[in-house]
Each structure stands twice: as C-alpha cells, then as structure tokens.
Amino acid sequence: MTRALILAAGQGTRLRPLTDDKPKCLVPLLGKSLLERQTHTLKQAGIDDIQIATGYRSDQIESLGFSISINPYFAETNMVESLFCCSAFIRKEGDLIIAYGDIVYQSSNLQALLDCDDEIALMIDHKWKDLWSLRLENPLDDAETLMMDSAGYVTELGRKPQSYDQIEGQYTGLIKIRSDKLAELDAFYNQLDRSATYHGKDFKNMYMTSFLQLLIDKGWKAKAVQVNNGWLEVDSLEDIRCYEKMAEDGDLDRFYKVEC
Q: Considering the entire predicted model, what is its pTM?
C-alpha cells in the first residue's frame, strides 16, 4: 500500500493577495485548487491514504475533510520541519509519497515514480528548461544543481548553479520513500545536529534538497525518475497568469495535461 503526505504549511507570500485568506495549496489553477488537482491524481492511482501537513490557515484544509497534522511553527520554519511533524504518519506501513503542496502533475509522471523500487525515488524533469524559459527571463537564476551518476542516481542537488552544465534535470518536489526505509528516515532526522547549519540555513529552516543531500552523502540511493514536463509549480502570481494564458492559447498541454 502506498500513502501520500502533502507538505502545505507555508504562507505562500509570493501569491498574495490570493493567499491573504487561504493557504497556498487552495489557490485555484484553471478553476480548481492545487490541492484538489493533486489529490485527484493520487486517488486515480489508488492512493487514498493522504495526509496534509498544514500550518497557515490549517482550518480551511481540515474543513474540507482531509486528515491533517499541524506545524505550529510554520511561520518560522521550513518544509523539513513540517515533514517531521508527521512522524506517526511517516512510520505507518507502506511506501510513502512526499509531495510539495504547490505542484500539480500528470498521472503518467506519478506512475513512473510508483514503478521505481529504489530506496528513494525523485521525480526529475529532464526538459525543465522549456518551462523555465516561459516563466523566467533567465532560467539559470531560479534553477538548482542536479547531477547524476552513470546509473541514474542523484549525486548532487539543490545548490546554486554556475552554468547549465551543472543541471542534468530539475528536482520537482515529488518524492517516494520505500516502506522499509521509513523508520530509518525518521531516525536519521532525529540524530541530526540541531546547532549546525545546512547549506547556510539553521536546522529548523533547512531546505528539503539539503536534507536529501545529507541522505545521499550518507549512502542512500536516490534514483532519478526522469520525465519530460508533465507537471507545474505554482510559486507566484506570474506563474498562474502564465499557465492560464497558455491554456487559453491552447499551449499548456505540451507542459501539463489537465486531468480533472
């Protein structure tokens, strides 16, 4: 059995005023919220055990009937802290999908992740630059490093790149952890030095990519499940305007096919 944990505790400040009165995952994209689109895709794949890690305006997510856990320090912590506020859910039986709350993805991308049986599977967009070029004047400004070995395992991610040579794809915010590794995942987090800094951030504000890099450096095998588009990230008002204009022009399908 596979379960899903959606990380949706943040305030989504770059989406204001849309997030003045709602969490980021409830912002609409093409008429439906990001959360509705993502949970539809998960349920279509037979994943019904879904928990939402919340913080900002958690009442609105709970009122929709979702199972939630709350990061009470959402305003002063980062995504890794929200993830491990859900330790009880993490330790349950079954593989675990971990997904950012501000993404949507096609069922084919999710299925590719589900089909991977490695310790960690990361959805990596090989054709990321096509989409970044539409969203940003200089794609390199917003991209992160991602390097793989000859067997397709990620060796480095999440740093500031100096050139496109350091980017063999983009990490998308969709992860699968194999069931037999989940107790070890929780234990690994709990033994980390709370007084250390991680890629320039204190422990409570560690980036997810920094945490994944720590696992890789410790010997965990993180397989790159490579896709060619088929997903969107919603980080700003400009993103929403861009995607909705593309949909109006009939051009969105080459990046993301709307499935609900």
A: 0.95
* DSSP secondary structure, 223-241, as one string: EEEEESS-EEE--SHHHHH
Which of 80, 129, 133, 111 lies closest to 225, judged by CA?
Answer: 111
Q: Which helix (H) or strand (E) holds 197?
A: strand 197-198
Instruction: List the chain pLDDT tens, one digit each, 260 residues.
Output: 899 999 999 988 888 998 998 999 999 999 999 999 999 999 999 999 999 999 999 999 999 999 999 999 988 999 999 999 999 999 999 999 999 999 999 999 999 999 999 999 999 999 999 988 888 778 888 899 999 999 999 999 999 999 999 999 999 999 999 999 999 999 999 999 999 999 999 999 999 999 999 999 999 999 999 999 999 999 999 999 999 999 999 999 999 999 98
Q: Select from 3.40.190.10, 3.30.379.10, 3.90.550.10, 3.40.50.880 the CATH code of 2-254.
A: 3.90.550.10
**Structural domain spans, the chain:** 2-254
- Which residues make beta-bridge pairs with 167? 146
Do residues 224 and 251 touch, judged by C-beta distance below 8 A?
no
d(CA 91, CA 182): 6
